[in-house]
Amino acid sequence: MKYVVATLEEIAPGDRKIVEVAGRSIGIFNVSGELFALRNRCPHQGAPLCQGSLWGTVTASVPGQIEYTPGGEILSCPHHGWEFHIRTGQSWCDPGRLHVGGYRVDVESGKDLLEDDAPDADGPGGAAPAGKVKGPYVAETIPVTIEGHYVVLDIA
User: Fold this and answer.
1) Handedness of CA 76, 81, 85, 86 (dihedral sign)
2) Do 46 and 77 touch, CB atoms closer than 8 A?
3) Neighbouring C-beta atoms of residue 105, cutoff 10 Å
């Protein structure tokens, strides 16, 4: 299932938005223009993970030469500080066992969304759908456009 959860402008680089979709709390993060979605539940004790602090990454090519790369790709649980990589959901404290569930996130144009969701009231060639007879009355219709780009979450 796909759900429109935000406009692209609502989640600027470095920001996040927490949404409720199909009974699940999900955090959507914009990391340098790329969108990622994670379940808002720490696997340790169920804390609201996506409300935690964001950090950059730390690497060391040799002992004593530590390099910090900003970018907000590491998410720290607000209850106990367990860290997870936003891109992969992988845990930093027990990488072989712990991870956070992720979801596919796409950006789609309003025009594409409108075309996908447009109801098909008539059958082929404008005829009434099978088993239906057109009545004498017609409701006034108003054209609808959707402009901009929207964040679409796929929770397959």
Assistant:
1) negative
2) no
3) 20
* pLDDT 10s digits, 13-65: 999 999 999 999 999 999 999 999 999 999 988 999 999 999 988 888 899 99
**Using CA atoms in the order 17, 21, 23, 26, what is the torsion angle rounded to 10 degrees?**
-30
Q: CA nearest 26: which of 82, 94, 81, 101? A: 101
Q: How confident is the model at residue 128 (pLDDT cuts 50, 70, 90)?
A: low
